[in-house]
Design goal:
Blueprint: H1 2-5, E1 10-14, H2 18-22, H3 26-38, E2 47-51, H4 65-82, H5 85-90, E3 92-96, H6 104-108, E4 115-117, H7 125-134, E5 140-141
Parallel strand pairs: 1-2, 2-3, 3-4, 4-5
Helix pairs in contact: 3-4
Keywords: Isomerase
Pathway: Carbohydrate biosynthesis
Family: Belongs to the triosephosphate isomerase family.
Length: about 140
């Protein structure tokens, strides 16, 4: 993997379409996407996994904190079973998808959400600063 050889950090995004969520296939879709990473990642040291539901990208819709936590916990469990328990504990799993200054605080409280992938909100300086300055030491902003 060229990015790994260049010592660059990589954010691998996984997420489902709205119809897949409504059909109860969120985990299946995300796990299938994760399988593609496992086959090519030589080391997880510089890898971050982002759960970014496609239905939430740029729509103003955001997963509830409970929905996001459920998927993050399932990803961590999948990593423990399919990579190693050590990698599952260490890998950062972040949330992206219509994150903004109004909804980040409840998401940040979730145990398995290690930080955020901020898109459009990063274009609004004050809002971006609010998120960045309020994230706990455990969390990360990418």
């Amino acid at each position: 993997m060229v990015l790994y050889e260049q010592n660059l950090n990589v954010v691998g995004c996984v997420g489902e379409k709205l119809e897949e969520r409504e059909a109860g296939k969120t985990f299946d879709v995300c796990f299938e996407q994760l399988k593609a990473f496992v086959d090519v990642v030589p080391s997880w040291d510089n890898i971050v996994i982002a759960f970014e539901p496609m239905w939430a990208i740029g729509t103003g819709k955001v997963a509830t904190p409970q929905q996001a936590q459920e998927v993050h916990a399932a990803i961590r469990d999948w990593m423990a079973k399919n990579v190693t328990p050590e990698v599952a504990k260490k890998v950062r799993i972040i949330y992206g998808g219509s994150l903004n200054g109004a909804n980040y605080a409840e998401l940040a409280k979730q145990e398995d959400i290690d930080g955020f992938l901020i898109g459009r909100a990063s274009l609004k300086g004050a809002e971006f600063a609010t998120v960045c300055n309020s994230v706990t030491a455990k969390k990360a902003v990418v």
